[in-house]
Amino acid sequence: MKRIAALLLAVMLLLTACAKTPDPTEPSTEATTAPTETTTEATTQPTETTQAPEAQYHNPLTGEPLEEPIMERPYAVVMNNIYDAQPMHGVGQADIFYEYMVDGLSGGITRCLALFTDVGQVEKIGSIRSARTYNISLARSYQALFAHAGGSTMADSLLKSGVVNDLDAGKASSNIFYRDQDRLNSGYALEHTMFTSGEKLMAYAQQLGYHASLPQPYDVGLTFDDDAELKGDRAYEITVRFRSSNGKGSFFTYDAQKGTYTMVQEFYGQHQRDFIDANTDEQVEFRNVMVLHATSTLDSDGYHIYTQLTGEGTGYFARDGKLVSIRWERETEDDPFSYYLEDGTPVALGVGSTYIGIVPPDSPFQYQ
Q1: CB neighbours of residue 10 within 10 Å
Q2: What is the dihedral of CA 351, 359, 347, 214, to 10 degrees?
Q3: Contacts of 321 (CB under 8 A, 6+ apart)
Q4: What is the pLDDT of residues 4-39, one digit of tens each?
Q5: For a surface tag, which of 93, 104, 129, 296 has the fewest beta carbons within 10 Å of its beta carbon?
């Protein structure tokens, strides 16, 4: 009996040992409990989109937004544009830049009128040349103070009637308008050396007692809208000729990245120069290019010309690399120009500076 009990005890111990040591070749049947991941649902607050408030004030000549309103009248300065007078100073800061024929109907020589709403910031302006009846007319359309150096007989007679506030270099002291000594030393002819500055012009206007504040309301007939699509022909290259194919030419090239046009001038059908501002040595850029057809005739002296800038006429307008035909209207010499598309919609300019060329109706014009 003792031997049987001992044998049974040994068997039980052996079975217990086998139960405690699992065979490593056997797959484990132990249940694995994956950790429970506690997720907290994020509460997303709605994002509030805020737009910058629309500017309350704008530059009346460029449409650019301003923190404060422009309170003073613009200045219109007659600029020399003969080849021997290049380069110009201050033109890169002009808001609107006119180019037109001068003296004779061949279109070989042009003169310019630069309009500034913030003339006090322009360090050097010139060279400055003489007045004509039609650049006086342009200045009147903006109610601008008019700066020049002398003028034709008809222009002088008109200025004496007081139609504009006249800032004549020939009547000013030498501390307002001055001859540029560097130009004189470099061999420039005397008529290409007359200069001034924005601060000097403002001081001259104050000295003469001119009322500089803008009349209210002030309307120059311009509409600006960067979002308005111009549905016209492609116009990455524009050629403006003044009267003849070998006369003065202004060639514009569109930069799609900048959204602006630059100009190269051709003189006498042969000399070409980039249109730069000598104050910065940078090429001038225009957001808008406009060409207006206007009839020019010779004055009674058979030399100076008269350009009809009232009534109505046709023209072209380019911005954003596109070009359309337009129509212009102007009732009197003291009214602004109004510009319309062929369907009667007002022309929407891009915000920025504008070139306006005034040419006879039969002048060659090309674009591509």
Answers
A1: 10
A2: 60
A3: 234, 235, 236, 254, 256
A4: 334 333 333 333 333 333 343 333 333 333 434 444
A5: 104
DSSP conformation class of 161: T
Distances, alpha carbon 16 to alpha carbons 9, 10, 292, in Å: 11, 10, 113
Cis peptide before 127 (omega within 30 of 0): yes
**CA 280 – CA 277 distance, rounded (Å):** 6
b/e per residue 119-137 (b: at least 16 CB within 10 A): beebebbbbbbbbbbbbbb
pTM: 0.85
Q: What local confidence, expressed as pLDDT, does residue 264 receive? A: 98
Token look-up 């020019």 returns: 296
Q: What share of the chain is helix, strand, coil (3-state, %, to 5)?
A: 20, 35, 50
Could you write out the three-class secondary structure of 24-55? CCCCCCCCCCCCCCCCCCCCCCCCCCCCCCCC
Return the structure tokens found at 82. 């003969």
Q: What is the separation, in whole angstroms, between the first and last Cα of the chain?
A: 124
Per-residue pLDDT, 2: 37
